[in-house]
Amino acid sequence: MIRPKTIREVVYEQLKNNILAGVYRPGERLIETNLAQDLEVSRTPIRDALNKLESEGLVETLPHRRIFVTKLSRKNILDFYQTRAVMEGLAAKLAAENATEEELADFHSFLNEMEVVFEKEKELTNYKVIAEINNEFHSKIYYISKNEVLRKMLESLQNPITLIRSTAWTKNSTRKYSTLNEHRLIASAILQRDGTTAQKKAEEHIFNAWKAADQALEDENASG
Amino acid sequence: MIRPKTIREVVYEQLKNNILAGVYRPGERLIETNLAQDLEVSRTPIRDALNKLESEGLVETLPHRRIFVTKLSRKNILDFYQTRAVMEGLAAKLAAENATEEELADFHSFLNEMEVVFEKEKELTNYKVIAEINNEFHSKIYYISKNEVLRKMLESLQNPITLIRSTAWTKNSTRKYSTLNEHRLIASAILQRDGTTAQKKAEEHIFNAWKAADQALEDENASG
DNA sequence: ATACGGAATACTGTATACAAAAAGAATTTT
DNA sequence: AAAATTCTTTTTGTATACAGTATTCCGTAT
Q: Do you know which PANTHER family this protein is assigned to (chains A, B) (predicted)?
């Protein structure tokens, strides 16, 4: 049974995609009326969508003031990753402790798939495929952790982080390889139900991701 | 220079207060039209406020379906505290590491104030005063941690937790005393710039708060 | 009686008109 | 010419009317 999507939902997804894909760049101004004209809807669903995006940290605004796509500072970015690190650590730990046997079996076969994809995409040119399977890896952990609150918060952190990555980090093969390795370490700890190690490896993984993102942004600023 | 508040801001605060104070009970249905009439405004700012409250987890709704004040399950509550624990831990650790000398001095004198308040309110009957100063204690830590992302997320977690406390936990003197003691332990670690201990003590503190809340809710269900 | 189906109704979603505030342009003042 | 001040324009905030969907109520059939 499918439910027809409301206009605001469609608008929300479109705007979000445009922001995350860099169509609307960080710092760019958004005007309700223009967006409404472009998407051929009234301002009402546009405003609803923008409100939601604001609470997710993708746009910024003050009452009666203009609306801008969020532009994150280097400190902001560190803050995001730092926060995400402890949350991913908790998720990994809970996953190791709370997964059912079925879920672990499932997770195991997903890992095999992942290996196959990486094997096939040896050149790692297909950034989108890699990014997708990496996101799926993390999502699986959130779900088997059985903590809904944590899952939702981590999912909402995903947006700003995608925003960061869309600006920097187009192709950094070294990082892609180490990501795969780090995922292996986390997964192995979860499968062995070793919560402590899973937590530690997950935290380290996010820390490394931060270092890579930070480095990429620095390089970009230095060259651009 | 003060800015006149927009209607939606006022409405948001009113609805939020009513939810957190238990005027609108968990599970209760909210009707836009009625709220608009009660507050003597149009539906527009009501809808804006409800959308915001939804993204903060205080109300729940599906498209074209009714709106309800969030009713948290026991598992939800555990999830909230579990998540908050690691985040408070991180905040305490960062506070110990990143506070300036001035901030530490400030924090120290706040602690003295806190002791005075508790001394004066020996009977601990004035629940509101105690709750306020406890919240302030945590807020101070968020600020001196220097991590804005973490602070905002912790602040948004505060709402559902207040919701939990408003239903259970009216007066539990034992818990109030141990809260003071636990706060002392966290503070002392921060003042000594011992990040590891601060983190550990903060995590334990939230875990204990969860145990108390969970117990109170169980008792309430058993009796009520 | 109970289950099903179809109006009636109650509420949320959307469009649009109008109000108010902020940003920008033009004008005056120094 | 620079700064301050008014006024114009642009843009967001709010009210309201209308559209569309879910829920309720009632009648009918089994």
A: GLUCONATE OPERON TRANSCRIPTIONAL REPRESSOR (PTHR43537:SF24), TRANSCRIPTIONAL REGULATOR, GNTR FAMILY (PTHR43537)
